[in-house]
Amino acid sequence: MDWDDLKIILAVTRLGSLSAAARALQITQPTASRRLDAFERSLGVRLFERHAQGLHPTALGESMRADLERIEQSVFALERQIKTHDPGLRGRVVVTSVDWFADFILAPILARFGSMHPAVSVELHTDGRLFNLSRGDSEVAVRFRQFEQEDLIERRVADVSFGLYATLAYFEQHGEPDFGAGCANQTIVLLHGPASHVAQNEWLRNVAPSARWR
Fold first, then answer.
1. What is the pLDDT of residues 177-209, one digit of tens each?
2. Contact predicate 9/36, CB 8 Å
3. Where are the beta strands (DSSP E) in 2-157?
4. What residues form DSSP beta bridges with 51?
């Protein structure tokens, strides 16, 4: 069996459509459809039921998912092992983090790294998604929270201090916050969207549980 065919089956099972699977695998939708059809014909089985809403795995297709995911993890483990024994610094490295940290902190650091290693192509992504390092979506991720994936090398690189800030006009209108009362009657502005996952919001909810959130 060809691993490229199995990757298509796993991607369709996860994403529910050929077009989404093709985008994830960076191939065309006709290529994904042709390879999936050829795979099913070669084995004489049907792995997916075709519906207007997408592709739904048959009982056999669904039963294959766990085995395919184990194969995928083994392939990624082999790729990581080979990379760690590569003596030269070359190739593509994808780094992800939240937008403000990536723009102001990581970008200058990676620019210096790139000038030192011209054979390395560095891509810095500020996408709000949590890239799956185990699956190879990214090689390096800088996060303000604990990683939940297994089989990763995790390092604490810095301490970050948090604080609450307000203008004098705000204090004149609302008074100073009473932390003993959980900052009742105070309004706190949080980061929105993907950035809301960072640790500072958990800290804020602990020190100011009674405040209004915006």
1. 998 899 998 998 876 655 545 667 778 888 898
2. yes
3. 48-51, 54-57, 91-96, 120-125, 140-141
4. 54
The predicted-structure confidence for 17-67, as pLDDT tens digits, reads as follows: 888 889 888 899 899 999 999 999 998 989 998 887 788 889 998 899 999
Number of DSSP helices (H) and strands (E) in the chain, helices first: 8, 7
Of the candidates 68, 51, 59, which has an alpha carbon nearest to the alpha carbon of residue 14? Answer: 68
Strand partners, 91: 120
Span(s) in the chain for CATH 1.10.10.10: 3-84
**Cα–Cα dist 189/183, whole Å:** 13
Kindly list the distances between the CA atom of residue 28 and the CA atoms of 23, 39, 136, 174, 206, in Å, as whole numbers in the listed order: 7, 17, 20, 58, 48
pLDDT of residue 156: 83
Whole-number Å distance between alpha carbons of 72 and 135? 8
Which residue reads 């992800």 in tokens?
Answer: 96
Locate 205 and state its tokens: 């909810």
Which tokens hold the place of 38? 């050829």
* Domain 3-84: CATH class, spelled out: mainly alpha
DSSP-derived 3-state class of residue 168? helix
CATH number given to 91-141: 3.40.190.10
* pLDDT tens sequence across 13-25: 998 888 888 988 8
Which residue type sits at 16?
A: G
